[in-house]
Amino acid sequence: MASYGDELHFIVDSESLDDPADAREIDFDLEASDEDEEETGSDTDYLSDISTEVDPVAAALTPGKPLFLIQRSHQQSAILPQVFNDVAGRHLADLSLGAVAPLPRMSPDGARKFFAAVPNVPVRIADPECFARLDSFGTTLSQQRDGKAYVGQSGRYWDYFTDDQPVGQSEDWVKQVLDAQRVVGATLLLTPGMWADAATAEESLISMRRHADWARSNLSDAEHLAVNSTMSATWLTTARLREQLLNELIDSDEQVFYIRFRWPLLAQPYGHLLDTSILEGYAELASTFQDNGKILILPNTGLTGWLSVALGAHGFSTGLGSGERAFADTRVIKIKQKSPRPAPTQRIFAPSILHIIERSISDRLDALPEARACDCRFCRSLRQQPTGQFDKALAGAHYLRRVADLTARISGETNNSITAARNLIQEANEFRREASSTVPLTGANDPKHLPLWAEIIS
Ligand SMILES: [Zn+2]
Fold first, then answer.
1. Is residue 364 located within the same domain as residue 300?
2. Within this chain, do residues 38 and 119 fall inside the same structural domain, yes or no?
3. Which pLDDT tens digit goes with each residue over 402-424?
4. Shared domain check, 375 and 310
5. Averaged over 80-107, what is the pLDDT?
6. Taking residues 89-104, what's their average pLDDT?
7. Rounded to the nearest whole angstrom, what is the distance from the C-alpha of residue 346 to the centroid of ligand 1?
8. Å from CA of 229 to ligand 1 middle
9. In angstroms, what is the span from residue 350 Cα to ligand 1's centroid?
């Protein structure tokens, strides 16, 4: 948010906006500073048994068990160690866990502390986010944010991020990108992940391959690498580009890919991807990876990532803030300053309809005879808050726990995971149909994605 006289400018990632407080938070999530939040160490040690495995990272990158990644957000991240413990205590048989630090948006010390607070999460990714460099997608990101840089003050810590580079970059620079991840304790190293421009598709793919070759030749035998790339969703929706991309990835000698697609502006805050052609593109990508025994990780995809895992992707990341749940276009809105500011809308994930909705509506769903309120530890704590009060960290932790539960449910062989996901989506669809006769599931509370998902997974 920026102030221009009595006008406030907000950055949002959705078309509709019923609450300026959402906008302010989205803006804040992308702020660079990580100095006002501190994760504390794990309160229990469910995870300690993983460390006895010979190579837990290799195990987490083996097909079969999905990889559930949580990306650190700017706000409320102090609760994440509890979320990891809670999930690990229940689901280690069915999923692997990973933590992601958005490297240039943190200080080196902040990233190290984040990983230190989750010492037994095997997959630790320090995402170099080179797509946000000014010679990559950074200028567009900034234009969509009223000129405000995607990576702010913390960029000064990271020479790999700010230093000028020749076109195509160099092997030395790729090594520098790897070293930046090593020093903070990453266990799965990523290639830089520059923006793959669809207008120069061939050159973009050649550059991705060259970065992977340079990274591979600077890796020790004990280290793990994922080829990282960031690109427009056009690569998924245009048949020619999709084929070109799939040929490149499947023919590559590399096994593990970490691919982030830029989504169009979402319909609503904390919304789902509602574009059928993009969903179909994900479905084809996921199943092709699965058929070829390759590992596809989809960062910042929320429940769209979950659906993709059911269809053959290996893992996905989500998080507490909207920027961790979706990598979508943003826009700036201008609102006259009013005081006092209205209280922010309380929103919570409603597992019965796989959707984030207003808390009052979620309470009404839970009160239906065929439903019951979530009894996870975070919801129990949330219900102990004084009436009318809300705790965004607990609500977000409940979301992460529930998405992990859903991911554990679709673990296993492809056919089983598709069937399990199809059943979960059908259940949610039926619940929505019955509930909507008594509870108003309209506007942003309408789970519009469910019919689309049912179609994709039919
Ligand atoms: Zn809960």
1. no
2. yes
3. 999 999 999 987 778 999 999 99
4. no
5. 97
6. 97
7. 15
8. 34
9. 9
Is 334 part of any domain? no
Distance (Å) from CA 397 to ligand 1 centroid: 8
Kindly give the distance from the C-alpha atom of residue 103 to the centroid of ligand 1, in angstroms, as a whole number.
30
Residue 395 sits in which domain range?
345-456
Give me ligand 1 centre to Cα 348, in Å.
9
For residues 68 and 124, membership in a common domain is answered with: yes
Is residue 285 assigned to a domain?
A: yes
Asked if residue 194 and residue 47 are part of one domain, the reply reads yes
**276 lies in the same domain as 372:** no
Q: Which residues are found with C-beta within 5 Å of the ion, ligand 1?
A: 374, 376, 379, 398
Tally of helices (H runs) and strands (E runs) in the chain:
18, 14
Question: Into how many domains does the chain fold?
Answer: 2
Question: Which two three-digit tokens encode residue 154?
Answer: 């913390």
Give distance in angstroms: CA of 33 to centre of ligand 1.
29
Q: Please tell me the distance between residue 273's alpha carbon and the centre of ligand 1 in angstroms.
A: 23
pLDDT band at 271 (very low <50, low <70, confident <90, very high): confident
- 333 has which bridge partners? 10
How far does residue 414's CA lie from ligand 1's centre (Å)? Answer: 28
* Residue 14 DSSP class: B
> Of 276, 292, 325, at which residue does a domain stop?
325
Would the pLDDT of 148 be above 60? yes
CA–CA separation, 235 vs 364, rounded Å? 41
Position 9 confidence tier, pLDDT thresholds 50, 70, 90: confident
**Separation of CA 353 and ligand 1 centre (Å):** 14
- Residue 144 CA to ligand 1 center (angstroms) comes to 34
Residues 60 and 96 in one domain: yes
- Ligand 1 center to residue 456 CA distance, Å? 27
Query: Based on the domain organization, do 297 and 423 belong to the same domain?
Result: no
Q: What is the C-alpha to C-alpha distance for residues 403 and 67, in angstroms, rounded to an integer?
A: 12
State the Cα–Cα distance between residues 314 and 258, nearest whole angstrom.
Answer: 10
Model confidence at 36, pLDDT cuts 50, 70, 90, reads very low
From 325, 359, 374, give the residue that closes a domain: 325
Centre of ligand 1 from the C-alpha of residue 381, in Å: 9
What HEC string does 368-423 produce? CCCCCCCCCHHHHHHHCCCCCCCCHHHHHHHHHHHHHHHHHHCCCCHHHHHHHHHH
Domain presence at residue 145: yes
Q: Is 3 among the domain residues?
A: no
Q: What is the DSSP string of 262-294?
A: EBPPBSSTTPPP--HHHHHHHHHHHHHHHHTT-
The CATH code of the domain that includes 160 is 3.20.20
Q: Which residue has the tokens 């979530």?
A: 374
Q: Quick check: 229 and 192 in contact, CB under 8 A?
A: no
